[in-house]
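Propose amino acids for all 132 sites.
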């Protein structure tokens, strides 16, 4: 519904606002939160497989070891770390800091960079440990 006097929407939405880093990271934070529900089901599946028996546990490990399984695990790792760092960003705001637009934009960009770097670090450590 348009405002008759100014011909603009009464309730702006994503098609009206110009995306800025803080807005995009807020949306991604919500998406990663949702993705963590799916990832937690994977963790539960793995734990149930471990409790069920060696054959089923080996099957689940094989599935998670395929290319698709590893991509899913990589995505879960990134979602977990990104959501964690985004939560820390929100915690800083809860403490009353980081509201300056330049600071909040820097924090949003840092959230993305840090989550990617930490995901790479976790996977590198995992590969090094696995290769022994």
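Proposal:
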């Amino acid at each position: 519904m348009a405002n008759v006097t100014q011909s603009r929407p009464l309730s702006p939405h994503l098609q009206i606002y110009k995306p800025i880093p803080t807005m995009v990271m807020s949306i991604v934070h919500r998406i990663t939160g949702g993705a963590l529900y799916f990832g937690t089901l994977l963790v539960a599946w793995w734990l149930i497989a471990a409790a069920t028996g060696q054959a089923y546990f080996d099957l689940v490990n094989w599935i998670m070891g395929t290319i698709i399984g590893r991509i899913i695990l990589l995505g879960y790792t990134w979602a977990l770390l990104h959501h964690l760092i985004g939560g820390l960003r929100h915690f800083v705001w809860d403490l009353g800091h980081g509201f300056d637009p330049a600071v909040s934009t820097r924090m949003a960009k840092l959230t993305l960079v840090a989550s990617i770097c930490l995901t790479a670090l976790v996977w590198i450590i995992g590969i090094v440990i696995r290769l022994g």
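The first strand starts at residue 2 and ends at 3. Helices lie at 21-52, 54-65, 67-94, 101-131.
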